[in-house]
Design a protein that fits this description.
Helices cover 77% and strands 2% of the residues.
Length: 249
């Protein structure tokens, strides 16, 4: 009975529109960032960014469809957007240097995780244990396209480091904070990823239509999440007295 709890819960969630479930993901991420910031400070936020990088790279393999969006949706965008909220808090509360270290550590840990999974798959699997389907599933998930992984790390670094820089310059008001997020998490991330994944390292099959399908749904979700994240950031900044913490560098 207990073993079926999550299966039952997943089946129940699938009776609702995917957009509603994504909203639950956003609420979960936002509450988690606020609580982690309150009780675990910089170490907790840094761990959150690292973990979300891994989660988002797994969720992007899971497609769905929103009723109001004509394009397929690759999940992971909501979780990825929440990392900008966490990094913005670290940047304001603990300073640019520690926020940058957290972003770099996230990439290092993601590479470490991926290499470990690849080495795991390098072991010859035992036959006859009824686990063949699980081995096959793990192989599909953790044997990545090199250009996609490389492009995702470069775009993540470029976007996050740009946001760290722009927050100090533009992040004084809600409008300009949203502008900094739009430049970093929407423009920079999508342009750099598309450039490396489909142009520089591509196989020659890249078209404008491919770019639209890859980017447009993610852009719409990120703009919406960024708008909400800006207000959440302002609330946390106001009530947690960000910028006055004794740990700020």
């Amino acid at each position: 009975m207990v073993d079926d709890t999550f299966v039952t819960f997943i089946d129940w969630l699938r009776t609702y529109p995917p957009l509603f479930v994504s909203l639950l993901v956003y609420i979960l991420c936002t509450i988690s960032v606020a609580l982690i910031d309150k009780y675990f400070n910089y170490a907790g936020l840094s761990c959150y960014v690292i973990l979300c990088g891994i989660i988002a790279n797994l969720q992007v393999l899971y497609p769905t469809k929103y009723a109001l969006v004509p394009f397929p949706i690759l999940l992971g965008t909501v979780v990825f957007s929440s990392t900008f909220l966490a990094v913005d808090i670290m940047n304001e509360k603990y300073g640019k240097q520690l926020a940058t270290k957290s972003v770099l550590l996230s990439v290092v840990c993601n590479i470490f995780f991926m290499l470990n999974m690849i080495l795991m798959l390098g072991h010859k699997p035992l036959q006859g244990l009824g686990l063949d389907d699980k081995v096959t599933a793990l192989s599909h998930i953790f044997i990545p396209q090199g250009r996609i992984i490389f492009a995702s790390y470069i775009s993540f670094l470029s976007a996050q480091l740009t946001e760290i820089m722009l927050l100090k310059i533009l992040g004084k008001t809600v409008f300009f904070h949203n502008l900094s997020l739009f430049i970093s998490s929407v423009l920079i991330d999508n342009i750099v990823f598309t450039l490396f994944a489909f142009v520089i390292l591509g196989n020659g099959n890249f078209t404008t239509q491919n770019a639209i399908y890859v980017s447009i749904s993610a852009i719409a979700i990120r703009i919406f999440c960024n708008l909400l994240n800006t207000f959440i950031y302002r609330i946390i900044k106001r009530y947690a007295s960000l910028g006055k913490d004794i740990y700020k560098r």
